[in-house]
Amino acid sequence: MFTVQNKDKYYDNVDKLFLAYRRKINWSKKMKHWLVRRCGAIRNLYNETIDRFTIGFPKKEAWSPRGYIAQYALPRIRFMRSNLCGFPPELTYKKWGKILDKIIFALDAVARDDDDNTIAENPKKVDEGLNLLGEYFLDLWD
After folding, report:
1. Percentage helix, strand, coil for the chain under 3-state DSSP, each rounded to 5
2. What digits encode the pLDDT tens for the residues 69-127?
3. 46 vs 84: CA distance, rounded Å
């Protein structure tokens, strides 16, 4: 069994040791610095998470919101097109499907704008799809 002659002195020294150790290492700062130096992807995820809590979205989405809006809307409108149940009262089922196809083409071109030149190759078709999106925006329901 471990015994200590002067317990008060022993506990004082142990407390001083742990306090000194705790002061030297601030774990949150140390972890943040390690993330910043070592892991770029984790650092970006950390910064995006902080941005989501403070301003509601990552700051990188503010520099080119059209691409992020198109990437967000495109899969939802594609799903709506494949599971077409309803359409605006002034249109027929086929006309609504063609309008959704044009909107999907335009959003796909905007979402892939950095990768290829779909917008430059088909500017009228993209403009038509985006104008239809604006015109029928309130009719996007299923």
Report:
1. 75, 0, 25
2. 888 899 999 998 888 878 888 888 899 999 999 999 999 988 887 566 777 788 899 89
3. 39
Residue 136's contacts (CB-CB under 8 Å, 6 or more residues apart) are 88, 99, 103
Query: What is residue 4's predicted lDDT score, i.e. its pLDDT?
Result: 47
63 CA to centre of own chain: 13
Contacts of 4 (CB under 8 A, 6+ apart): 10
Q: What pLDDT digit, counting tens, does each position of 32-55 carry?
A: 666 666 667 777 888 888 888 888
With a CB cutoff of 8 Å and minimum separation 6, the contacts of 25 are none
Contact between residue 140 and residue 74 where contact means Cβ atoms under 8 Å apart: no
Cα-trace Rg, the chain: 29
Tokens at residue 61, please?
């989405």
Cβ atoms 94, 84 nearer than 8 A: no
Which pTM was predicted? 0.62
